[in-house]
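Please check both lines for our workbook:

___
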Amino acid sequence: MIAMTGSLPNSDLVSNNLTDGQVVRNATLHILLAAMRVMSRSTGVIQVETKHHRWKLLLAGGGLVLAEEEGQVIPTLVRKYSNKGISFSRIPEWEQRQTNRPYCYPFVSNVYKKHPDITNEVVKEIVLESLLALHLEDDFSFVWQPANDMQINLPVLQLSMLENTIANEVRQWQKFECVKHPYQLVQLVDAANLLARVGNDNFPLFAKVTTGQDRVCMIADTFKQPIYRTALLLDKLAQKNIVSIVQLQERKLDNETGISSSISNPAITKDEPRVFIVDDSPVLLQQMQRLLSSWGYQVDFTDNAEAATDKILHYKPTIVFIDINMPSLNGFDLIKQIRRQRELASLALVLVTAENSMTNNFRARWASCRFLAKPRSSSDTAKFRDELRNLLRELAPLSTDTLV
Protein backbone atom coordinates (compact mmCIF):
# COMPACT_ATOMS: atom_id res chain seq x y z
CA MET A 1 0.00 0.00 0.00
CA ILE A 2 1.26 3.47 -0.79
CA ALA A 3 2.32 5.37 2.29
CA MET A 4 1.52 9.03 1.78
CA THR A 5 3.79 11.72 3.14
CA GLY A 6 2.65 14.39 0.74
CA SER A 7 1.72 14.73 -2.92
CA LEU A 8 3.46 16.11 -5.96
CA PRO A 9 1.71 17.91 -8.82
CA ASN A 10 1.96 15.95 -12.06
CA SER A 11 3.25 18.95 -14.01
CA ASP A 12 6.34 19.13 -11.81
CA LEU A 13 7.29 15.49 -12.14
CA VAL A 14 9.34 15.47 -15.35
CA SER A 15 11.29 18.63 -14.52
CA ASN A 16 11.97 17.69 -10.86
CA ASN A 17 13.10 14.47 -9.25
CA LEU A 18 10.32 12.62 -7.47
CA THR A 19 10.75 13.29 -3.75
CA ASP A 20 11.12 10.21 -1.61
CA GLY A 21 7.77 9.02 -0.26
CA GLN A 22 5.65 11.58 -2.14
CA VAL A 23 2.63 10.24 -3.96
CA VAL A 24 1.69 11.20 -7.51
CA ARG A 25 -1.99 10.69 -8.27
CA ASN A 26 -4.03 10.69 -11.47
CA ALA A 27 -0.93 10.41 -13.63
CA THR A 28 -0.91 9.37 -17.27
CA LEU A 29 1.21 6.53 -18.60
CA HIS A 30 3.54 9.12 -20.16
CA ILE A 31 4.20 10.69 -16.74
CA LEU A 32 4.74 7.31 -15.09
CA LEU A 33 7.27 6.25 -17.74
CA ALA A 34 9.04 9.60 -17.47
CA ALA A 35 9.32 9.16 -13.70
CA MET A 36 10.70 5.65 -14.15
CA ARG A 37 13.40 6.93 -16.53
CA VAL A 38 14.43 9.61 -14.03
CA MET A 39 14.40 7.41 -10.94
CA SER A 40 16.15 4.47 -12.62
CA ARG A 41 19.36 6.51 -12.40
CA SER A 42 19.42 5.46 -8.75
CA THR A 43 18.25 2.29 -6.97
CA GLY A 44 14.84 1.84 -5.42
CA VAL A 45 11.27 0.68 -5.80
CA ILE A 46 8.48 2.56 -7.53
CA GLN A 47 5.11 1.32 -6.26
CA VAL A 48 2.39 1.69 -8.87
CA GLU A 49 -1.38 1.43 -8.46
CA THR A 50 -4.23 1.58 -10.93
CA LYS A 51 -7.91 1.13 -10.20
CA HIS A 52 -7.41 -2.58 -10.87
CA HIS A 53 -3.93 -3.65 -9.73
CA ARG A 54 -0.73 -2.86 -7.80
CA TRP A 55 2.91 -3.46 -8.68
CA LYS A 56 6.37 -3.06 -7.20
CA LEU A 57 9.02 -2.24 -9.82
CA LEU A 58 12.69 -2.42 -8.81
CA LEU A 59 14.69 0.20 -10.73
CA ALA A 60 18.49 0.46 -10.97
CA GLY A 61 21.19 1.31 -13.48
CA GLY A 62 18.87 2.89 -16.02
CA GLY A 63 16.49 -0.05 -16.18
CA LEU A 64 14.15 -2.53 -14.55
CA VAL A 65 15.40 -5.42 -12.43
CA LEU A 66 12.19 -7.00 -11.15
CA ALA A 67 8.44 -6.50 -11.37
CA GLU A 68 5.96 -7.89 -8.84
CA GLU A 69 2.18 -7.75 -9.00
CA GLU A 70 0.59 -7.73 -5.55
CA GLY A 71 -1.07 -11.02 -4.68
CA GLN A 72 0.47 -12.88 -7.62
CA VAL A 73 4.18 -12.97 -6.77
CA ILE A 74 4.52 -16.62 -5.77
CA PRO A 75 2.08 -18.15 -8.31
CA THR A 76 3.72 -16.24 -11.17
CA LEU A 77 7.26 -17.23 -10.21
CA VAL A 78 6.35 -20.89 -9.67
CA ARG A 79 4.47 -21.03 -12.97
CA LYS A 80 7.23 -19.39 -14.99
CA TYR A 81 10.02 -21.48 -13.46
CA SER A 82 7.97 -24.67 -13.89
CA ASN A 83 7.64 -23.94 -17.61
CA LYS A 84 11.44 -23.83 -17.74
CA GLY A 85 11.76 -27.20 -15.98
CA ILE A 86 12.51 -25.96 -12.45
CA SER A 87 10.24 -26.90 -9.56
CA PHE A 88 10.56 -26.12 -5.86
CA SER A 89 9.77 -28.41 -2.94
CA ARG A 90 9.35 -25.34 -0.75
CA ILE A 91 9.01 -21.62 -1.38
CA PRO A 92 10.45 -19.66 1.55
CA GLU A 93 8.35 -17.01 3.25
CA TRP A 94 9.65 -13.47 2.85
CA GLU A 95 9.10 -10.16 4.55
CA GLN A 96 6.25 -8.26 2.89
CA ARG A 97 6.35 -5.03 4.87
CA GLN A 98 9.46 -3.47 3.32
CA THR A 99 8.17 -0.85 0.93
CA ASN A 100 11.57 -0.27 -0.68
CA ARG A 101 12.31 -3.93 -1.42
CA PRO A 102 10.64 -6.41 -3.78
CA TYR A 103 9.24 -9.26 -1.72
CA CYS A 104 10.88 -11.99 -3.75
CA TYR A 105 14.31 -10.46 -4.43
CA PRO A 106 16.32 -12.73 -2.08
CA PHE A 107 14.57 -15.82 -3.43
CA VAL A 108 15.10 -14.92 -7.10
CA SER A 109 18.73 -13.95 -6.40
CA ASN A 110 19.42 -17.38 -4.89
CA VAL A 111 17.84 -19.18 -7.83
CA TYR A 112 19.82 -16.95 -10.19
CA LYS A 113 23.09 -18.23 -8.71
CA LYS A 114 22.19 -21.80 -9.68
CA HIS A 115 20.21 -21.13 -12.87
CA PRO A 116 21.29 -17.74 -14.31
CA ASP A 117 20.05 -18.24 -17.88
CA ILE A 118 16.65 -19.58 -16.89
CA THR A 119 16.19 -16.87 -14.25
CA ASN A 120 17.02 -14.23 -16.85
CA GLU A 121 14.26 -15.62 -19.08
CA VAL A 122 11.75 -15.85 -16.21
CA VAL A 123 12.42 -12.32 -14.94
CA LYS A 124 12.24 -10.86 -18.44
CA GLU A 125 8.91 -12.59 -19.11
CA ILE A 126 7.45 -11.25 -15.85
CA VAL A 127 8.77 -7.73 -16.48
CA LEU A 128 7.39 -7.61 -20.02
CA GLU A 129 4.05 -9.06 -18.88
CA SER A 130 3.79 -6.43 -16.13
CA LEU A 131 4.68 -3.59 -18.49
CA LEU A 132 2.11 -4.81 -21.01
CA ALA A 133 -0.53 -4.79 -18.27
CA LEU A 134 0.50 -1.27 -17.23
CA HIS A 135 0.39 0.01 -20.80
CA LEU A 136 -3.17 -1.27 -21.18
CA GLU A 137 -4.41 0.68 -18.14
CA ASP A 138 -4.67 4.37 -17.36
CA ASP A 139 -4.84 6.76 -14.40
CA PHE A 140 -1.87 5.77 -12.24
CA SER A 141 -0.83 6.56 -8.69
CA PHE A 142 2.76 5.91 -7.71
CA VAL A 143 5.39 6.57 -5.05
CA TRP A 144 9.19 6.29 -5.07
CA GLN A 145 11.04 4.51 -2.25
CA PRO A 146 14.85 4.68 -2.58
CA ALA A 147 17.09 1.73 -1.66
CA ASN A 148 20.57 3.06 -2.33
CA ASP A 149 22.13 0.53 0.05
CA MET A 150 20.71 -2.39 -1.91
CA GLN A 151 23.21 -4.56 -3.80
CA ILE A 152 21.80 -5.51 -7.20
CA ASN A 153 22.83 -9.06 -8.13
CA LEU A 154 20.45 -9.53 -11.05
CA PRO A 155 20.78 -8.28 -14.65
CA VAL A 156 19.24 -4.89 -15.47
CA LEU A 157 16.79 -4.72 -18.39
CA GLN A 158 17.19 -1.34 -20.05
CA LEU A 159 14.00 0.71 -20.14
CA SER A 160 14.52 1.88 -23.72
CA MET A 161 14.59 -1.72 -24.97
CA LEU A 162 11.58 -2.72 -22.88
CA GLU A 163 9.51 0.27 -24.00
CA ASN A 164 10.17 -0.43 -27.68
CA THR A 165 9.21 -4.08 -27.28
CA ILE A 166 6.01 -3.31 -25.38
CA ALA A 167 4.95 -0.44 -27.66
CA ASN A 168 4.83 -2.80 -30.63
CA GLU A 169 2.79 -5.40 -28.73
CA VAL A 170 0.37 -2.84 -27.32
CA ARG A 171 -0.53 -1.75 -30.87
CA GLN A 172 -1.48 -5.35 -31.63
CA TRP A 173 -3.54 -5.73 -28.43
CA GLN A 174 -5.48 -2.58 -29.18
CA LYS A 175 -6.90 -4.30 -32.27
CA PHE A 176 -8.68 -6.96 -30.21
CA GLU A 177 -12.44 -6.67 -29.83
CA CYS A 178 -12.93 -8.62 -26.59
CA VAL A 179 -9.56 -9.19 -24.93
CA LYS A 180 -8.36 -5.92 -23.42
CA HIS A 181 -5.88 -6.95 -20.74
CA PRO A 182 -3.56 -9.91 -19.95
CA TYR A 183 -5.00 -10.20 -16.44
CA GLN A 184 -8.59 -10.76 -17.55
CA LEU A 185 -10.20 -14.06 -16.57
CA VAL A 186 -11.63 -16.44 -19.17
CA GLN A 187 -14.89 -18.34 -18.75
CA LEU A 188 -15.99 -21.18 -21.07
CA VAL A 189 -19.50 -20.59 -22.42
CA ASP A 190 -20.01 -23.08 -25.26
CA ALA A 191 -18.11 -26.34 -24.67
CA ALA A 192 -19.43 -28.07 -27.78
CA ASN A 193 -18.18 -25.40 -30.15
CA LEU A 194 -14.87 -25.21 -28.30
CA LEU A 195 -14.43 -28.97 -28.73
CA ALA A 196 -14.98 -28.60 -32.46
CA ARG A 197 -12.53 -25.72 -32.55
CA VAL A 198 -9.59 -27.10 -30.56
CA GLY A 199 -10.08 -30.85 -31.11
CA ASN A 200 -10.22 -33.82 -28.76
CA ASP A 201 -6.53 -33.70 -27.81
CA ASN A 202 -6.54 -30.12 -26.55
CA PHE A 203 -10.10 -29.91 -25.25
CA PRO A 204 -9.57 -31.27 -21.68
CA LEU A 205 -6.71 -28.86 -20.98
CA PHE A 206 -8.43 -25.90 -22.61
CA ALA A 207 -11.64 -26.59 -20.70
CA LYS A 208 -9.63 -26.80 -17.46
CA VAL A 209 -8.16 -23.29 -17.90
CA THR A 210 -11.39 -21.61 -18.98
CA THR A 211 -13.32 -21.98 -15.73
CA GLY A 212 -13.22 -18.29 -14.86
CA GLN A 213 -10.22 -18.71 -12.54
CA ASP A 214 -7.33 -18.42 -15.03
CA ARG A 215 -6.06 -15.21 -16.58
CA VAL A 216 -5.15 -14.78 -20.23
CA CYS A 217 -1.45 -14.73 -19.27
CA MET A 218 -1.82 -17.90 -17.18
CA ILE A 219 -3.46 -19.71 -20.10
CA ALA A 220 -0.55 -18.65 -22.30
CA ASP A 221 1.86 -20.18 -19.79
CA THR A 222 -0.17 -23.38 -19.63
CA PHE A 223 0.16 -23.83 -23.39
CA LYS A 224 3.74 -22.50 -23.37
CA GLN A 225 3.07 -20.00 -26.12
CA PRO A 226 3.45 -16.21 -26.50
CA ILE A 227 0.79 -14.24 -24.68
CA TYR A 228 -0.20 -12.37 -27.84
CA ARG A 229 -0.93 -15.61 -29.68
CA THR A 230 -3.10 -16.83 -26.80
CA ALA A 231 -4.94 -13.50 -26.62
CA LEU A 232 -5.56 -13.61 -30.38
CA LEU A 233 -7.15 -17.08 -30.15
CA LEU A 234 -9.24 -16.13 -27.12
CA ASP A 235 -10.42 -12.95 -28.82
CA LYS A 236 -11.67 -14.98 -31.79
CA LEU A 237 -13.40 -17.48 -29.48
CA ALA A 238 -14.98 -14.61 -27.54
CA GLN A 239 -16.31 -13.05 -30.74
CA LYS A 240 -18.09 -16.34 -31.41
CA ASN A 241 -19.42 -16.50 -27.82
CA ILE A 242 -17.50 -19.71 -27.14
CA VAL A 243 -15.67 -18.10 -24.21
CA SER A 244 -16.39 -15.00 -22.17
CA ILE A 245 -13.64 -12.52 -21.24
CA VAL A 246 -14.40 -11.29 -17.71
CA GLN A 247 -14.02 -7.57 -17.07
CA LEU A 248 -11.31 -6.50 -14.63
CA GLN A 249 -12.51 -5.87 -11.10
CA GLU A 250 -12.03 -2.36 -9.80
CA ARG A 251 -10.47 -1.69 -6.45
CA LYS A 252 -12.61 0.47 -4.22
CA LEU A 253 -11.22 3.64 -2.66
CA ASP A 254 -11.14 3.95 1.09
CA ASN A 255 -10.64 7.36 2.69
CA GLU A 256 -8.29 6.10 5.39
CA THR A 257 -6.20 3.45 3.64
CA GLY A 258 -6.24 4.67 0.04
CA ILE A 259 -7.28 1.51 -1.72
CA SER A 260 -9.19 -1.40 -0.26
CA SER A 261 -10.67 -4.66 -1.47
CA SER A 262 -13.79 -4.04 0.61
CA ILE A 263 -16.95 -3.34 -1.34
CA SER A 264 -19.45 -1.48 0.74
CA ASN A 265 -23.22 -1.66 0.59
CA PRO A 266 -24.98 1.49 1.83
CA ALA A 267 -27.92 -0.61 3.00
CA ILE A 268 -25.71 -2.50 5.46
CA THR A 269 -25.43 -1.11 8.98
CA LYS A 270 -22.16 -1.27 10.91
CA ASP A 271 -23.86 -3.42 13.57
CA GLU A 272 -24.35 -6.38 11.23
CA PRO A 273 -21.86 -9.30 11.33
CA ARG A 274 -18.66 -9.07 9.33
CA VAL A 275 -17.79 -11.86 6.93
CA PHE A 276 -14.32 -12.45 5.48
CA ILE A 277 -13.64 -14.70 2.47
CA VAL A 278 -10.32 -16.20 1.36
CA ASP A 279 -10.33 -17.71 -2.12
CA ASP A 280 -8.00 -17.55 -5.12
CA SER A 281 -10.91 -17.27 -7.57
CA PRO A 282 -11.88 -13.61 -8.22
CA VAL A 283 -15.10 -14.82 -9.85
CA LEU A 284 -16.18 -16.75 -6.74
CA LEU A 285 -15.14 -13.85 -4.49
CA GLN A 286 -17.32 -11.48 -6.49
CA GLN A 287 -20.30 -13.86 -6.44
CA MET A 288 -20.01 -14.52 -2.69
CA GLN A 289 -19.59 -10.83 -1.92
CA ARG A 290 -22.70 -9.88 -3.88
CA LEU A 291 -24.78 -12.65 -2.34
CA LEU A 292 -23.77 -11.98 1.27
CA SER A 293 -24.09 -8.20 0.86
CA SER A 294 -27.58 -8.65 -0.56
CA TRP A 295 -28.50 -10.55 2.61
CA GLY A 296 -27.20 -7.69 4.78
CA TYR A 297 -23.69 -8.75 5.81
CA GLN A 298 -20.56 -6.61 5.82
CA VAL A 299 -18.07 -8.36 3.54
CA ASP A 300 -14.34 -8.16 2.93
CA PHE A 301 -12.12 -10.63 1.10
CA THR A 302 -8.72 -11.46 -0.33
CA ASP A 303 -7.36 -13.77 -3.03
CA ASN A 304 -3.94 -13.78 -1.33
CA ALA A 305 -3.89 -16.52 1.30
CA GLU A 306 -0.48 -15.44 2.59
CA ALA A 307 -1.80 -12.00 3.53
CA ALA A 308 -5.11 -13.29 4.89
CA THR A 309 -4.20 -13.60 8.58
CA ASP A 310 -3.08 -9.96 8.85
CA LYS A 311 -6.22 -8.81 7.02
CA ILE A 312 -8.44 -10.88 9.31
CA LEU A 313 -6.75 -9.44 12.41
CA HIS A 314 -7.41 -5.94 11.10
CA TYR A 315 -10.97 -6.56 9.86
CA LYS A 316 -12.15 -8.50 12.96
CA PRO A 317 -14.83 -10.61 11.25
CA THR A 318 -17.45 -12.75 12.93
CA ILE A 319 -16.87 -15.63 10.51
CA VAL A 320 -14.32 -16.54 7.84
CA PHE A 321 -14.84 -18.71 4.74
CA ILE A 322 -11.67 -20.38 3.45
CA ASP A 323 -11.03 -22.22 0.21
CA ILE A 324 -8.93 -25.38 0.55
CA ASN A 325 -7.05 -25.44 -2.75
CA MET A 326 -5.05 -22.24 -3.17
CA PRO A 327 -1.69 -21.97 -4.95
CA SER A 328 0.52 -20.30 -2.35
CA LEU A 329 -0.98 -21.56 0.93
CA ASN A 330 -3.70 -24.18 1.23
CA GLY A 331 -6.71 -23.77 3.48
CA PHE A 332 -5.54 -26.15 6.20
CA ASP A 333 -2.18 -24.39 6.52
CA LEU A 334 -3.97 -21.04 6.67
CA ILE A 335 -6.15 -22.34 9.49
CA LYS A 336 -3.01 -23.21 11.47
CA GLN A 337 -1.76 -19.64 10.98
CA ILE A 338 -5.07 -18.19 12.11
CA ARG A 339 -5.37 -20.41 15.19
CA ARG A 340 -1.88 -19.38 16.33
CA GLN A 341 -3.22 -15.86 16.85
CA ARG A 342 -4.64 -15.50 20.37
CA GLU A 343 -7.33 -13.09 19.18
CA LEU A 344 -8.51 -15.56 16.50
CA ALA A 345 -8.38 -18.80 18.48
CA SER A 346 -12.18 -19.05 18.77
CA LEU A 347 -13.08 -17.38 15.46
CA ALA A 348 -15.72 -19.26 13.44
CA LEU A 349 -14.04 -20.77 10.37
CA VAL A 350 -15.70 -22.53 7.44
CA LEU A 351 -13.84 -24.55 4.83
CA VAL A 352 -15.38 -24.22 1.39
CA THR A 353 -14.41 -26.56 -1.44
CA ALA A 354 -15.81 -28.37 -4.46
CA GLU A 355 -14.19 -31.58 -3.16
CA ASN A 356 -16.97 -32.85 -0.90
CA SER A 357 -15.06 -35.86 0.40
CA MET A 358 -15.15 -37.67 3.74
CA THR A 359 -11.46 -36.81 4.17
CA ASN A 360 -12.06 -33.08 3.84
CA ASN A 361 -15.08 -33.27 6.16
CA PHE A 362 -13.01 -35.10 8.77
CA ARG A 363 -10.06 -32.71 8.48
CA ALA A 364 -12.40 -29.74 8.84
CA ARG A 365 -13.88 -31.16 12.07
CA TRP A 366 -10.37 -31.97 13.32
CA ALA A 367 -9.42 -28.31 12.77
CA SER A 368 -12.54 -27.15 14.66
CA CYS A 369 -14.07 -25.79 11.46
CA ARG A 370 -17.36 -26.19 9.67
CA PHE A 371 -17.49 -27.54 6.15
CA LEU A 372 -19.46 -26.29 3.14
CA ALA A 373 -19.42 -27.89 -0.31
CA LYS A 374 -19.29 -25.55 -3.33
CA PRO A 375 -21.93 -26.14 -6.01
CA ARG A 376 -20.58 -28.30 -8.82
CA SER A 377 -23.21 -27.14 -11.31
CA SER A 378 -25.99 -24.59 -11.62
CA SER A 379 -28.48 -27.19 -10.35
CA ASP A 380 -26.61 -27.24 -7.01
CA THR A 381 -26.75 -23.47 -6.50
CA ALA A 382 -30.08 -23.33 -4.65
CA LYS A 383 -28.97 -26.05 -2.21
CA PHE A 384 -25.66 -24.27 -1.61
CA ARG A 385 -27.42 -20.97 -0.83
CA ASP A 386 -29.78 -22.68 1.61
CA GLU A 387 -26.91 -24.41 3.41
CA LEU A 388 -24.91 -21.17 3.49
CA ARG A 389 -27.85 -19.18 4.85
CA ASN A 390 -28.60 -21.74 7.56
CA LEU A 391 -24.94 -21.87 8.60
CA LEU A 392 -24.79 -18.07 8.84
CA ARG A 393 -28.01 -17.95 10.88
CA GLU A 394 -26.31 -20.28 13.36
CA LEU A 395 -22.80 -18.77 13.49
CA ALA A 396 -23.29 -15.13 12.48
CA PRO A 397 -26.98 -14.20 12.63
CA LEU A 398 -28.19 -10.87 11.31
CA SER A 399 -30.20 -8.54 13.55
CA THR A 400 -33.25 -9.41 11.43
CA ASP A 401 -32.81 -13.17 11.90
CA THR A 402 -35.14 -15.02 14.26
CA LEU A 403 -33.37 -17.95 15.86
CA VAL A 404 -35.45 -20.97 16.83
Summary: Residues 255 and 379 are 41 Å apart (CA to CA).
